[in-house]
Design goal:
This protein has 235 residues and is of the alpha/beta class. It contains ten helices and five strands; from the N terminus they run αβαβααβαβαβαααα.
Length: 235
């Protein structure tokens, strides 16, 4: 029997929108969410936080939440690399620094990050560094920068657990007006690539398959067709 998504335990929500209410919380990201929600109180002893985790885990979403809360300016990798330290300081604002791991190992960029960190420690500004790698594993050229970034706060976003995956899948399908029951959700989670990127690709494939077949209900046979097409023969 097909169950309406409204009957599933969706106590948290997820949507493509970038507000805090659109970010689904589980054990894998709870601390990261706590640190973003408790800025600046939990950041006051350090001018920076490193948010790290695999591609597609939600770093950019949480960064957008913090950017809205703090009035920060978002800097992509190329933009940060092209800016002078003087111009960064003259703006007198908080920053989100994307893909920070690619700045590490480049002495010129590390020096800029080092002086920015020190200046922010005096000015009261903050930056949020996004990285796919833990600060402990980054190959710093400048030891003083390594000690500062590693001593400051960091928050990991880990791969999602079953409960969170099911909630995200259910909400994503609901957003597209598709019906799905608990057994079909369990079927997906048992067989899917257990990563945020893998999940997003699979959702898109299932929706394309259902649309092509003109189906509004995501049944296990339909899902099997989509997943076999993605992963090859399941046998």
């Amino acid at each position: 029997m097909m169950t309406s998504l409204k009957q599933l335990p969706l106590d948290l929500v997820f949507a493509p929108a970038m507000g805090r209410e659109d970010f689904m919380v589980g054990a894998c990201n709870q601390y990261a969410v706590y640190m973003i929600e408790n800025w600046p109180e939990e950041w006051k002893h350090y001018p920076a936080l490193t948010l790290y985790g695999p591609k597609g885990c939600g770093k950019s979403h949480l960064a957008a939440v913090w950017q809205h809360r703090s009035g920060a300016v978002s800097l992509g990798l190329e933009e940060f690399a092209s800016r002078s330290l003087e111009s960064l300081l003259e703006e007198d604002t908080n920053y989100v620094i994307d893909r920070m791991e690619f700045l590490i190992g480049d002495r010129e960029q590390e020096e800029k990050l080092f002086h920015l960190y020190n200046a922010f420690g005096q000015s009261g500004n903050f930056f949020l560094g996004l990285s796919s790698v833990s600060p402990e594993k980054l190959p710093f050229e400048i030891k003083d920068l390594a000690s500062r970034i590693r001593a400051a706060q960091s928050a990991e976003i880990k791969p999602p657990d079953d409960e969170l995956l099911i909630k995200v899948l259910a909400k994503r399908f609901s957003d597209q007006s598709f019906k799905i029951d608990q057994s079909a959700l369990d079927y997906i989670v048992l067989r899917m690539d257990r990563s945020w990127d893998g999940m997003s690709s699979l959702i898109e494939k299932i929706i394309r398959t259902a649309t092509a077949m003109k189906k509004g209900e995501l049944t296990k046979p339909l899902i099997k067709i989509a997943m076999t097409d993605v992963h090859g023969d399941e046998d």
